[in-house]
Write a structure and sequence with these properties.
single chain; alpha+beta; Beta-Lactamase; Arc Repressor Mutant, subunit A; 2 domains; 5-stranded antiparallel beta sheet; elongated; transferase; CheY-like_superfamily
Length: 243
């Protein structure tokens, strides 16, 4: 039977209270739709370092059409390791972002999966990593990455805590994407409405006729309707009708 240190119970209660309050804060941020996504992700990566003793640094890697973006890094060497994975074309963050829900490595010195990246990570004194897929959509993907300077650092409890934080990050990213799509749709609708009004005034047609003209221009030029509308709003209806 193991010996329980006098402070263990107090420490465990303090940690549970910190976990509870942190998750409540993150949940409140998710419920408030005005919170910038960068702020939410920064809270997630900071919470990973604060709540999981094995984690020395954390960040979110977003990949968009081949561009690697390190978001909310808690250490300056997080983007360096993200760039190393981009340059070598391998690594746990890449694997999580593109293929696997969770990628765990307990000892980069001995793991055969990513030899080129592992050599760079070990040179930076990073020996263990946990990466969680946040989303994958078209040419875009993302992962929450936890870095440790300790070999075999992560316990199953650590992995579970990381998964909880990754879930918050994933929900925040999906909400931000939906908000962006909604705002883009509203902007497109407004531009199409403006373009219709300009065509109605210029060519003395009704709303149906103006929309039919917009649709015909879009089909004839193989250009999305919203782009046709944007050009008309920017340059006037004669610009599109004579081009």
């Amino acid at each position: 039977m193991g010996v329980v240190k006098p402070g263990d119970g107090v420490h465990r209660r303090d940690h549970h209270e910190l976990l509870r309050s942190t998750m409540e804060t993150l949940t409140a941020e998710l419920a408030f739709h005005g919170t910038p996504i960068d702020r939410t992700l920064a809270q997630v990566t900071a919470a990973a370092v604060q709540l999981i003793p094995a984690v020395d640094a954390a960040d979110v890697l977003l990949i968009d059409e081949g561009e690697f973006i390190s978001v909310a890094p808690t250490s300056p060497w997080c983007p360096v390791l993200d760039a190393a994975q981009r340059d070598t074309g391998e690594g746990p963050c890449l694997e999580a972002a593109h293929a696997s829900a969770v990628v765990r490595c307990d000892d980069l010195r001995k793991d055969p999966r990513w030899p080129a990246f592992a050599a760079i990570a070990v040179e930076s004194d990073v020996y263990a990593m946990l990466s969680y897929q946040l989303y994958t959509h078209g040419a875009g993907s993302g992962a929450l990455n936890l870095f440790s300077r300790e070999i075999g650092a992560f316990s199953l409890e650590n992995e579970a805590l990381g998964a909880m934080l990754a879930t918050h990050a994933a929900v925040a990213l999906m909400a931000a994407q939906k908000q962006h799509q909604f705002e883009s749709a509203l902007a497109s609708r407004d531009q199409i409405g403006q373009a219709k009004g300009m065509i109605m005034e210029r060519f003395n047609v009704d709303a149906v006729g103006a929309f039919e003209l917009l649709t015909r221009l879009s089909q004839d030029s193989n250009t999305p309707l919203r782009e046709i509308a944007a050009q008309i709003v920017a340059h006037g209806p004669d610009h599109r009708s004579t081009s």
